[in-house]
Design goal:
This protein is mostly helical and 251 residues long. The chain is built from ten helices and two strands. Strands 1-2 form a two-stranded antiparallel ribbon.
Length: 251
């Protein structure tokens, strides 16, 4: 019964994540959904800045703290190991939903591309960014990343095993293609408002902070395998994989 309950919990959380992921695309792209990054009534500037900054900070704190190994060791004294990842995904999805709901638009145009070809190019880059994000998750282990593998192993009565450190697809050209996809998507807009700019700057800063902590954890977990990979492959700017004899410090 515990295994069945874990699978049901994991499946519901995954469904919530997927809906949130799709809404995030619409939210940042100003697509026709109830609330987007630039829609809604205009309020006082200071109030909007405070609320939006708090929402972004809440997401960053949850996303970073709950991903750290030390927190996981403490957290799994409270929640079963099999649903730890699903619970992390649940909290992240709920906070994102809160951000979409409570986000305050900040008008004022930073740039606006009028040329139709330029707008089409930026829309294409926006779509490319989100495509890179999604495809990159499958190039590592999509189902482990979002907790489904863990609950499936629990149902089968099998012990959890760490996913092997492998690099394939985009990971041969950039160490963090998921983050690269987010950067492309968040900045590729033909109309950049002040609110969108705040979102893009804050998330860009968080992405690079997150990369620092993630690489520290990967180095601790995988040792020489990751250090060898880090010497060969660029961090965020795609580039051909360096040979063992000619590598330089990655970008």
């Amino acid at each position: 019964m515990g295994g069945i309950a874990s699978v049901l919990y994991g499946a519901v959380v995954y469904a919530l994540f997927f809906v949130t992921f799709l809404y995030a695309i619409a939210f940042t792209g100003n697509l026709p959904v109830p609330k987007t990054i630039d829609s809604g009534p205009e309020g006082p500037l200071i109030s909007a800045l405070v609320v939006n900054t708090l929402l972004l900070g809440l997401f960053a704190i949850q996303h970073s703290v709950m991903a750290r190994p030390a927190f996981k060791r403490w957290w799994t004294r409270i929640v079963p190991h099999s649903v730890e990842r699903s619970t992390y995904v649940l909290f992240a999805s709920l906070i994102l939903a809160l951000l979409f709901w409570q986000w305050r638009p900040i008008p004022g145009v930073v740039w606006e591309i009028q040329d139709s070809l330029g707008r089409m190019a930026l829309h294409a880059l926006f779509a490319l960014g989100w495509t890179i994000v999604l495809l990159s998750t499958f190039m590592i282990n999509h189902f482990d990343l979002f907790g489904l593998r863990q609950v499936w192993l629990r149902l089968r009565g099998a012990d959890y095993t760490e996913v092997a450190f492998v690099t394939r697809g985009f990971y041969n050209f950039v160490r963090h293609p998921i983050m690269l996809g987010f950067l492309i998507a968040f900045w590729s807009t033909p109309t950049m408002t002040m609110g969108h700019l705040l979102f893009s700057i804050a998330t860009t800063g968080y992405i690079f902070i997150g990369i620092f902590f993630e690489e520290r954890d990967l180095a601790a977990a995988h040792g020489r395998s990751f250090e060898h990979y880090r010497r060969q492959v660029s961090m965020i700017v795609p580039a051909p994989r360096k040979s063992e004899r000619t590598y330089t410090h990655p970008v």
